[in-house]
Structure prediction request, 364 residues.
Amino acid sequence: MSRTLNQANGDLLREFLSIADLLEEPRLAQLYAYLARDGEATTQDLIEALDLPQGTAYSYVDRLVDAGVIQVVSETPPRRYAAREIELTVTTADGEREYTITPALIDAVGRRETDADIDTYIDRHGIAGLATALTYTVERERGEMSHRLMARDLDISPLAAEIILQALRPIVHEHFDIETTGGSLADIEGVDTDFDDA
Amino acid sequence: MSAIHIGDTGLFVAIGDTKNRRYHAVRTFAYRNDIGFVLPERVYDELTANRSADRTPPIDAAIDDGWVRVADPLNYTIPLVSRVMDGVQRYIANADSRPEDEIERADAALAGVAAQAFSEGTANEAYVYTTDHDAGEGIETIFASEGYGDSITYINGFRFVNDLVD
Prediction:
Protein backbone atom coordinates (compact mmCIF):
# COMPACT_ATOMS: atom_id res chain seq x y z
CA MET A 1 0.00 0.00 0.00
CA SER A 2 1.26 3.48 -0.89
CA ARG A 3 2.39 5.62 1.99
CA THR A 4 1.29 8.75 0.16
CA LEU A 5 -2.20 9.80 0.92
CA ASN A 6 -3.34 10.96 -2.50
CA GLN A 7 -6.53 12.86 -3.21
CA ALA A 8 -8.67 9.77 -3.80
CA ASN A 9 -7.41 8.03 -0.67
CA GLY A 10 -7.95 11.19 1.32
CA ASP A 11 -11.56 11.35 0.17
CA LEU A 12 -12.04 7.70 0.96
CA LEU A 13 -10.60 8.10 4.43
CA ARG A 14 -12.77 11.16 5.05
CA GLU A 15 -15.85 9.23 3.95
CA PHE A 16 -14.90 6.30 6.13
CA LEU A 17 -14.56 8.52 9.19
CA SER A 18 -17.88 10.21 8.48
CA ILE A 19 -19.59 6.84 8.17
CA ALA A 20 -18.01 5.86 11.48
CA ASP A 21 -19.59 9.03 12.91
CA LEU A 22 -22.96 7.95 11.58
CA LEU A 23 -22.69 4.69 13.44
CA GLU A 24 -21.72 6.46 16.65
CA GLU A 25 -24.58 8.94 16.60
CA PRO A 26 -28.05 7.45 16.26
CA ARG A 27 -29.70 10.78 15.42
CA LEU A 28 -27.26 11.44 12.59
CA ALA A 29 -27.88 7.91 11.37
CA GLN A 30 -31.62 8.52 11.58
CA LEU A 31 -31.33 11.61 9.39
CA TYR A 32 -29.25 9.80 6.78
CA ALA A 33 -31.61 6.81 6.85
CA TYR A 34 -34.62 9.05 6.35
CA LEU A 35 -33.11 10.52 3.17
CA ALA A 36 -31.97 7.10 1.96
CA ARG A 37 -35.51 5.77 2.40
CA ASP A 38 -37.75 8.66 1.46
CA GLY A 39 -35.72 10.44 -1.21
CA GLU A 40 -35.25 14.21 -1.30
CA ALA A 41 -36.13 16.55 1.54
CA THR A 42 -35.50 20.08 2.77
CA THR A 43 -34.06 20.76 6.21
CA GLN A 44 -37.53 21.90 7.26
CA ASP A 45 -38.96 18.51 6.14
CA LEU A 46 -36.35 16.77 8.28
CA ILE A 47 -37.12 18.94 11.30
CA GLU A 48 -40.78 17.98 11.05
CA ALA A 49 -40.36 14.31 10.16
CA LEU A 50 -37.71 13.55 12.77
CA ASP A 51 -38.80 16.04 15.39
CA LEU A 52 -35.35 17.67 15.51
CA PRO A 53 -34.59 21.05 17.07
CA GLN A 54 -33.92 23.56 14.27
CA GLY A 55 -30.29 24.29 15.21
CA THR A 56 -29.47 20.60 15.49
CA ALA A 57 -31.03 19.83 12.11
CA TYR A 58 -29.02 22.53 10.30
CA SER A 59 -25.78 21.44 11.93
CA TYR A 60 -26.43 17.75 11.16
CA VAL A 61 -27.21 18.51 7.53
CA ASP A 62 -24.01 20.58 7.22
CA ARG A 63 -21.95 17.79 8.74
CA LEU A 64 -23.41 15.18 6.44
CA VAL A 65 -22.89 17.37 3.36
CA ASP A 66 -19.28 18.08 4.41
CA ALA A 67 -18.76 14.38 4.92
CA GLY A 68 -20.08 13.68 1.44
CA VAL A 69 -22.75 11.17 2.47
CA ILE A 70 -25.63 13.46 1.50
CA GLN A 71 -25.69 16.02 -1.30
CA VAL A 72 -27.56 19.13 -2.33
CA VAL A 73 -29.84 18.27 -5.24
CA SER A 74 -31.51 21.64 -5.73
CA GLU A 75 -29.85 24.97 -4.92
CA THR A 76 -32.98 27.10 -5.27
CA PRO A 77 -34.24 27.87 -1.77
CA PRO A 78 -35.24 25.96 0.15
CA ARG A 79 -32.35 23.62 -0.66
CA ARG A 80 -33.20 19.98 -1.13
CA TYR A 81 -30.94 17.13 -0.05
CA ALA A 82 -30.62 13.47 -1.01
CA ALA A 83 -28.59 10.59 0.39
CA ARG A 84 -25.62 9.21 -1.48
CA GLU A 85 -25.47 5.45 -1.67
CA ILE A 86 -23.08 4.03 0.90
CA GLU A 87 -21.55 0.62 0.80
CA LEU A 88 -18.41 0.04 2.73
CA THR A 89 -16.94 -3.35 3.46
CA VAL A 90 -14.92 -3.60 6.63
CA THR A 91 -12.56 -6.50 7.15
CA THR A 92 -10.91 -7.21 10.49
CA ALA A 93 -7.11 -7.18 10.58
CA ASP A 94 -6.89 -10.96 10.81
CA GLY A 95 -9.13 -11.19 7.75
CA GLU A 96 -11.48 -13.54 9.54
CA ARG A 97 -14.52 -11.35 9.73
CA GLU A 98 -16.06 -8.99 7.27
CA TYR A 99 -19.16 -6.90 7.31
CA THR A 100 -20.69 -4.36 5.03
CA ILE A 101 -21.99 -0.99 6.10
CA THR A 102 -25.12 -0.27 4.07
CA PRO A 103 -28.00 2.20 4.34
CA ALA A 104 -29.99 -0.59 6.03
CA LEU A 105 -27.37 -0.92 8.77
CA ILE A 106 -27.25 2.85 9.27
CA ASP A 107 -31.05 2.83 9.46
CA ALA A 108 -30.91 0.07 12.10
CA VAL A 109 -28.39 2.01 14.19
CA GLY A 110 -30.57 5.13 13.85
CA ARG A 111 -33.41 3.27 15.52
CA ARG A 112 -31.54 2.33 18.68
CA GLU A 113 -32.89 5.40 20.49
CA THR A 114 -36.48 4.34 19.94
CA ASP A 115 -36.10 0.55 19.90
CA ALA A 116 -34.97 -1.02 23.16
CA ASP A 117 -34.30 -4.41 21.52
CA ILE A 118 -31.88 -2.93 18.96
CA ASP A 119 -30.23 -0.85 21.69
CA THR A 120 -29.73 -3.91 23.92
CA TYR A 121 -28.30 -5.91 21.04
CA ILE A 122 -25.76 -3.19 20.15
CA ASP A 123 -24.76 -2.92 23.82
CA ARG A 124 -24.05 -6.63 23.91
CA HIS A 125 -22.66 -7.31 20.44
CA GLY A 126 -21.53 -3.97 19.03
CA ILE A 127 -22.21 -2.50 15.59
CA ALA A 128 -20.40 -5.41 13.94
CA GLY A 129 -22.73 -7.80 15.76
CA LEU A 130 -25.74 -5.82 14.57
CA ALA A 131 -24.43 -5.96 11.00
CA THR A 132 -24.27 -9.75 11.29
CA ALA A 133 -27.78 -9.92 12.74
CA LEU A 134 -29.04 -7.81 9.83
CA THR A 135 -27.58 -10.32 7.36
CA TYR A 136 -29.37 -13.12 9.22
CA THR A 137 -32.63 -11.17 9.14
CA VAL A 138 -32.46 -10.81 5.35
CA GLU A 139 -31.87 -14.56 5.01
CA ARG A 140 -34.64 -15.39 7.46
CA GLU A 141 -37.15 -13.19 5.65
CA ARG A 142 -36.16 -14.95 2.42
CA GLY A 143 -36.92 -18.31 4.03
CA GLU A 144 -33.32 -19.51 4.14
CA MET A 145 -32.66 -19.19 7.87
CA SER A 146 -34.43 -19.79 11.14
CA HIS A 147 -34.01 -18.11 14.51
CA ARG A 148 -32.74 -21.42 15.88
CA LEU A 149 -29.92 -21.75 13.33
CA MET A 150 -28.93 -18.14 13.94
CA ALA A 151 -28.84 -18.81 17.70
CA ARG A 152 -26.63 -21.83 17.10
CA ASP A 153 -24.25 -20.00 14.76
CA LEU A 154 -23.84 -16.97 16.99
CA ASP A 155 -23.98 -18.79 20.32
CA ILE A 156 -26.88 -16.74 21.64
CA SER A 157 -30.24 -17.98 22.98
CA PRO A 158 -32.99 -18.74 20.45
CA LEU A 159 -35.13 -16.12 22.20
CA ALA A 160 -32.45 -13.43 21.84
CA ALA A 161 -32.14 -14.37 18.15
CA GLU A 162 -35.90 -14.16 17.60
CA ILE A 163 -36.10 -10.78 19.37
CA ILE A 164 -33.43 -9.12 17.20
CA LEU A 165 -34.76 -10.78 14.03
CA GLN A 166 -38.15 -9.23 14.75
CA ALA A 167 -36.67 -5.83 15.63
CA LEU A 168 -34.74 -5.70 12.34
CA ARG A 169 -37.54 -7.10 10.20
CA PRO A 170 -39.23 -3.76 9.32
CA ILE A 171 -35.86 -2.38 8.18
CA VAL A 172 -35.24 -5.39 5.97
CA HIS A 173 -38.66 -5.03 4.38
CA GLU A 174 -37.99 -1.35 3.65
CA HIS A 175 -34.58 -1.89 2.09
CA PHE A 176 -34.90 -5.25 0.31
CA ASP A 177 -37.39 -6.96 -1.96
CA ILE A 178 -38.95 -9.71 0.12
CA GLU A 179 -41.71 -12.05 -0.88
CA THR A 180 -44.00 -13.06 1.98
CA THR A 181 -44.98 -16.68 2.43
CA GLY A 182 -47.50 -18.46 4.60
CA GLY A 183 -51.17 -18.04 5.35
CA SER A 184 -52.88 -15.40 7.42
CA LEU A 185 -56.15 -14.78 9.19
CA ALA A 186 -58.22 -15.42 6.06
CA ASP A 187 -56.77 -18.94 5.80
CA ILE A 188 -58.05 -20.06 9.20
CA GLU A 189 -61.35 -21.79 8.67
CA GLY A 190 -64.48 -21.17 10.68
CA VAL A 191 -63.23 -18.35 12.87
CA ASP A 192 -64.86 -15.05 13.66
CA THR A 193 -62.42 -12.27 12.85
CA ASP A 194 -64.80 -9.37 12.76
CA PHE A 195 -64.25 -7.85 16.16
CA ASP A 196 -62.82 -4.75 17.67
CA ASP A 197 -59.72 -5.58 19.69
CA ALA A 198 -59.87 -2.36 21.70
CA MET B 1 -64.19 -31.01 12.79
CA SER B 2 -61.77 -29.89 15.43
CA ALA B 3 -58.59 -27.96 14.90
CA ILE B 4 -55.38 -27.65 16.89
CA HIS B 5 -53.54 -24.30 16.83
CA ILE B 6 -49.81 -24.72 17.42
CA GLY B 7 -47.67 -21.68 18.24
CA ASP B 8 -43.93 -21.19 17.73
CA THR B 9 -41.59 -18.85 19.66
CA GLY B 10 -41.88 -16.08 17.07
CA LEU B 11 -45.63 -15.72 17.51
CA PHE B 12 -45.22 -15.02 21.22
CA VAL B 13 -42.39 -12.57 20.65
CA ALA B 14 -44.49 -10.78 18.02
CA ILE B 15 -47.42 -10.11 20.34
CA GLY B 16 -45.36 -8.05 22.77
CA ASP B 17 -46.09 -7.74 26.47
CA THR B 18 -49.47 -7.94 28.20
CA LYS B 19 -50.07 -4.21 27.77
CA ASN B 20 -49.51 -4.41 24.02
CA ARG B 21 -52.39 -4.04 21.57
CA ARG B 22 -51.17 -7.10 19.68
CA TYR B 23 -51.29 -9.24 22.83
CA HIS B 24 -54.89 -8.17 23.44
CA ALA B 25 -55.89 -8.73 19.81
CA VAL B 26 -54.56 -12.29 19.77
CA ARG B 27 -56.08 -13.07 23.16
CA THR B 28 -59.46 -11.71 22.06
CA PHE B 29 -59.23 -13.78 18.86
CA ALA B 30 -58.56 -16.88 20.96
CA TYR B 31 -61.39 -16.21 23.43
CA ARG B 32 -63.89 -15.25 20.74
CA ASN B 33 -63.26 -18.42 18.78
CA ASP B 34 -62.70 -20.69 21.75
CA ILE B 35 -59.17 -21.44 20.59
CA GLY B 36 -56.34 -22.48 22.85
CA PHE B 37 -52.86 -22.14 21.38
CA VAL B 38 -50.67 -25.16 22.06
CA LEU B 39 -46.89 -24.93 22.50
CA PRO B 40 -44.47 -27.83 22.16
CA GLU B 41 -42.48 -28.21 25.38
CA ARG B 42 -39.30 -27.18 23.56
CA VAL B 43 -40.91 -23.93 22.47
CA TYR B 44 -42.03 -23.21 26.03
CA ASP B 45 -38.45 -23.84 27.17
CA GLU B 46 -37.10 -21.42 24.57
CA LEU B 47 -39.51 -18.72 25.68
CA THR B 48 -38.76 -19.07 29.37
CA ALA B 49 -35.06 -19.96 29.45
CA ASN B 50 -32.79 -17.24 30.64
CA ARG B 51 -35.50 -15.00 32.07
CA SER B 52 -33.07 -12.40 33.34
CA ALA B 53 -31.08 -11.79 30.17
CA ASP B 54 -33.75 -11.34 27.53
CA ARG B 55 -37.06 -9.61 27.29
CA THR B 56 -39.33 -12.46 28.41
CA PRO B 57 -42.55 -12.91 26.43
CA PRO B 58 -45.65 -13.08 28.66
CA ILE B 59 -46.16 -16.77 28.11
CA ASP B 60 -46.96 -17.63 31.73
CA ALA B 61 -49.56 -14.84 31.83
CA ALA B 62 -51.17 -16.25 28.68
CA ILE B 63 -51.21 -19.74 30.21
CA ASP B 64 -52.77 -18.36 33.41
CA ASP B 65 -55.36 -16.57 31.28
CA GLY B 66 -56.25 -19.93 29.78
CA TRP B 67 -55.65 -19.29 26.06
CA VAL B 68 -52.26 -21.01 25.82
CA ARG B 69 -51.19 -24.41 27.06
CA VAL B 70 -48.08 -26.57 26.83
CA ALA B 71 -48.50 -29.74 24.75
CA ASP B 72 -48.30 -33.20 26.27
CA PRO B 73 -44.88 -34.84 25.90
CA LEU B 74 -44.34 -36.20 22.38
CA ASN B 75 -44.84 -39.90 21.92
CA TYR B 76 -42.16 -41.03 19.49
CA THR B 77 -43.54 -44.56 19.35
CA ILE B 78 -46.38 -43.21 17.18
CA PRO B 79 -45.00 -43.81 13.65
CA LEU B 80 -46.48 -40.63 12.15
CA VAL B 81 -44.92 -38.50 14.91
CA SER B 82 -41.40 -39.75 14.35
CA ARG B 83 -41.77 -39.77 10.55
CA VAL B 84 -42.91 -36.14 10.24
CA MET B 85 -40.35 -34.96 12.76
CA ASP B 86 -37.50 -36.57 10.82
CA GLY B 87 -38.97 -35.24 7.59
CA VAL B 88 -39.15 -31.65 8.82
CA GLN B 89 -35.63 -31.81 10.14
CA ARG B 90 -34.39 -33.06 6.76
CA TYR B 91 -36.39 -30.40 4.89
CA ILE B 92 -34.91 -27.54 6.94
CA ALA B 93 -31.39 -28.95 6.64
CA ASN B 94 -31.84 -28.96 2.86
CA ALA B 95 -33.49 -25.55 2.62
CA ASP B 96 -30.77 -23.93 4.74
CA SER B 97 -27.86 -26.05 3.43
CA ARG B 98 -26.93 -27.45 6.83
CA PRO B 99 -26.06 -30.88 8.16
CA GLU B 100 -29.19 -32.46 9.56
CA ASP B 101 -27.80 -32.77 13.08
CA GLU B 102 -27.51 -28.98 13.32
CA ILE B 103 -31.25 -28.55 13.03
CA GLU B 104 -32.95 -28.01 16.36
CA ARG B 105 -35.66 -30.47 17.30
CA ALA B 106 -37.95 -27.59 18.28
CA ASP B 107 -38.87 -27.00 14.61
CA ALA B 108 -39.71 -30.65 14.22
CA ALA B 109 -41.66 -30.64 17.50
CA LEU B 110 -44.22 -28.27 15.94
CA ALA B 111 -44.95 -31.00 13.39
CA GLY B 112 -44.79 -33.70 16.07
CA VAL B 113 -47.55 -32.07 18.12
CA ALA B 114 -49.82 -31.93 15.05
CA ALA B 115 -49.07 -35.56 14.12
CA GLN B 116 -49.80 -36.73 17.65
CA ALA B 117 -53.16 -34.91 17.66
CA PHE B 118 -54.07 -36.49 14.30
CA SER B 119 -53.01 -39.97 15.44
CA GLU B 120 -54.83 -39.77 18.75
CA GLY B 121 -57.91 -38.35 17.04
CA THR B 122 -58.04 -35.14 19.10
CA ALA B 123 -57.85 -33.00 15.94
CA ASN B 124 -58.27 -33.48 12.23
CA GLU B 125 -56.94 -30.10 11.25
CA ALA B 126 -53.84 -28.20 12.39
CA TYR B 127 -52.60 -24.63 12.06
CA VAL B 128 -48.95 -23.90 12.75
CA TYR B 129 -48.15 -20.27 13.58
CA THR B 130 -44.47 -19.56 13.05
CA THR B 131 -42.19 -16.72 11.96
CA ASP B 132 -39.60 -19.12 10.48
CA HIS B 133 -40.71 -19.57 6.89
CA ASP B 134 -38.46 -22.59 6.32
CA ALA B 135 -40.15 -24.38 9.24
CA GLY B 136 -43.65 -23.44 8.03
CA GLU B 137 -43.00 -24.53 4.46
CA GLY B 138 -41.26 -27.69 5.63
CA ILE B 139 -44.17 -28.73 7.84
CA GLU B 140 -46.69 -28.23 5.02
CA THR B 141 -44.52 -30.17 2.57
CA ILE B 142 -43.93 -33.14 4.87
CA PHE B 143 -47.58 -33.51 5.88
CA ALA B 144 -48.58 -33.30 2.20
CA SER B 145 -46.23 -36.20 1.46
CA GLU B 146 -47.95 -38.16 4.25
CA GLY B 147 -51.36 -37.52 2.69
CA TYR B 148 -52.36 -34.78 5.16
CA GLY B 149 -51.93 -31.88 2.74
CA ASP B 150 -55.42 -30.53 3.30
CA SER B 151 -55.23 -30.89 7.05
CA ILE B 152 -52.29 -28.65 7.88
CA THR B 153 -51.80 -24.92 7.27
CA TYR B 154 -48.73 -22.82 7.90
CA ILE B 155 -49.78 -19.42 9.24
CA ASN B 156 -47.21 -16.64 8.95
CA GLY B 157 -47.11 -15.31 12.53
CA PHE B 158 -46.38 -11.73 11.44
CA ARG B 159 -49.20 -11.57 8.90
CA PHE B 160 -51.62 -13.12 11.37
CA VAL B 161 -50.88 -10.61 14.13
CA ASN B 162 -50.88 -7.66 11.71
CA ASP B 163 -54.23 -8.67 10.24
CA LEU B 164 -55.73 -8.80 13.74
CA VAL B 165 -54.60 -5.31 14.73
CA ASP B 166 -55.20 -3.58 11.39
Remarks:
- The first strand of chain B starts at residue 3 and ends at 7.
- Chain B touches chain A through 53 residues (CB under 8 Å).
